[in-house]
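I am writing to request your help with a piece of structural work I have in hand. What I wish to show you is a protein chain and, alongside it, a tokenised description of its three-dimensional fold. Could you please explain, in whatever detail you think fit, how the structure tokens follow from the sequence? You will find the record immediately after this paragraph.
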Amino acid sequence: MSSDGQWTSVSLPYVTGEPGDVWAAEAKAHGGKGTQRLVAVDTRPAPESVARALGLQPGEEVVLRSRVMLLDGRPVELVDSYYLASIASGTRLAEMSKIPGGAVAHLVTLGYPSRRVVEDVTARIATPAEAEEFGLELPAVVVELARVIFSDDDRPVEASVMISPAETRRLRYEITP
């Protein structure tokens, strides 16, 4: 964290598909311990926004991996990642266990390298459940980052929604034209 209590997050290491625990490495670089708690892994009908992001019809099945990212044991981000059932079913993406090397690296081994990434960032009032998870007093503001990773032929292969307390989060985008 910086001296103002904000964490500056950079997306690039998370979307390249290089094997490794990016979150643990980032937290360690900031002097902390980054872990995660896997909350759920299941197959379910895609919510409307996820279906749109993945190019599916509403209600088509996706595999959801839901996690809580922890910094020194404290929740700092809620992450729901959705995968096309046609890609994820029968793979580590559909198992209730941590994926060695990470999900994006696993997509690469399945033949779906990251080629393009689109992120949308919004700020909104936390839901009661989010406030409780983060230990926030309502009303509190959260930052919601929605990311879609596209592979070859511009095929969307992962849609993730990440939520974190706004007071501790700063996003940095660095672009090299």
The chain has a mean pLDDT of 88. The first strand starts at residue 7 and ends at 10.
